[in-house]
Backbone:
């Protein structure tokens, strides 16, 4: 079982400190949700986990299976079994979804995957996620709708089989059908591959489709409250203001 552990994490950019002592543990097979109002530091945490150079860790540790990864490059963290689903995936004109997936798999291997083996794995992932096989011949995210971009990312997760995935507000701007595509994909990979996931969101609607076991609320760069699905239900009823008052967070 893989384990991502964040200990007393402090992170700043050139302008200011954004994370002020975050502690969080996510294991493979677990579904976590991280919620918080805009500006609370959610995307900063996601990018720092994957080693984005714009974010400086000034204190604390990020560990994967007990080994500190603070100084590892992004691709090295990905090889360990971490995956980041972006809020706004970029288009790669001229590169098909299938070719991109093959290159991504090869980046994780010492020897390139054989064509036949790749075809078998791609067909398996397409069936699992109920994706049209013609989808893989299109250029990655080029002219894709929001839902199609998310479908491509879920397909990447199925093919790369990470142990822990971080979904950074991946529900942003999606209609209900696209949202269901993301949620069902995460649920299937959780059930079939034992995927652990940290679902970072500003809204609660994706959590109507994927029920997390663990819920964390981030405010002012720190986790101020933890609980289970009942915490999502409280947010739906009351919003963030009562919690902000309760924990003494800034408005």
Residues:
């Amino acid at each position: 079982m893989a384990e991502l552990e964040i200990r007393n994490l402090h992170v700043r950019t050139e302008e200011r400190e954004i994370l002020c002592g975050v502690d969080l543990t996510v294991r493979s097979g677990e579904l976590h949700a991280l919620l918080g109002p805009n500006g609370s530091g959610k995307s900063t945490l996601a990018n720092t986990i994957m080693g984005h150079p714009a974010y400086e860790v000034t204190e604390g540790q990020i560990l994967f299976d007990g080994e500190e990864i603070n100084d590892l490059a992004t691709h090295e963290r990905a090889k360990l079994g971490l995956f980041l689903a972006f809020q706004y995936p970029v288009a790669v004109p001229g590169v098909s979804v299938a070719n991109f997936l093959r290159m991504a798999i090869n980046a994780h291997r010492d020897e390139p995957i054989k064509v036949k083996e790749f075809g078998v794995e791609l067909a398996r992932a397409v069936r699992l996620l109920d994706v049209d096989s013609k989808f893989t011949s299109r250029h990655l995210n080029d002219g894709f709708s929001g839902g199609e971009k998310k479908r491509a990312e879920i397909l990447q997760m199925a093919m790369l089989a990470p142990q822990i995935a971080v979904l950074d507000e991946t529900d942003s701007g999606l209609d209900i059908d696209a949202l269901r595509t993301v949620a069902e994909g995460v649920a299937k990979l959780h059930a079939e591959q034992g995927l652990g996931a940290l679902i970072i969101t500003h809204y609660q609607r994706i959590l109507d489709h994927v029920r997390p076991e663990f819920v964390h609320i981030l405010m002012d760069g720190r986790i101020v409250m933890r609980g289970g699905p009942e915490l999502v239900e409280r947010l739906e009823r009351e919003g963030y203001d009562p919690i902000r008052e309760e924990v003494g967070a800034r408005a």
The chain has a mean pLDDT of 91. The helical segments are 42-49, 74-80, 97-107, 115-129, 146-160, 176-193, 229-238, 241-247. The domain at 3-90+164-247 is CATH 3.40.50.300 (Rossmann fold). The longest helix spans residues 176-193.
